[in-house]
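Minutes, project check-in
Item: structure for the 218-residue chain
Input as provided by the requester:
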Amino acid sequence: MLERYLSALSLQDAAAEPPAATRERLKDRFPRGATRRMTQLGLLVATALDEVPPAPADAVVYASTYAETRALEDYLDSFPSASPTLFQTSIHPSAVQQALIGKQHAVREFFPLTGRAHLVAHALQTAFLAPSPRVIFCGGEERGTWLLDRSAASDRSFAFACALTTQPTAALARVRLTAVPEDSAAELTVTQLFEVLTSRRPLDVTAAPGLHLKLDWS
């Protein structure tokens, strides 16, 4: 059994808010002019990581299925004169890079993961196996437009960050992963995890083949 304790949590829900509205709402949290080239997901993840900041000795695990959807849409729309800037911001771990590089913030290890139905279980497994006593697990999605119409994007913009530690002191929740026979597993996406964290519902589910996830709030 793998076990960690959730000791801090930040939830950023932009729902169907347009990127420009998110930028205006959050601009005072960043240095002047810094938000101009940040993506919506970058703004949300950076805000979450500002509230649950990683220390230099921490590992960071990032989970997103679609990542910078709007930047990817704009990059594809820019052909045949493709934009290098849009390409740079459309790559998968861009949101965390926007949060950390701007502040020249170093971390011990960074593990970006992508996937679909079993992404949450595998991201938590990565976090639990990291040697750092404290791991920051963050993630999110960005609402798409024409990619959403093709079922290739999230229908909601959001981000979260939580600290997972080895010590139970002042923990908000206890999270456990247990090896089980590889029967059929339920779907647990990043969006579904965000809803669980927002409502503080318990979890008791086989979240990936061979991995049973249990989350109990204090």
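Outcome recorded: The chain has one domain: 2-217.
No further action items on this chain.
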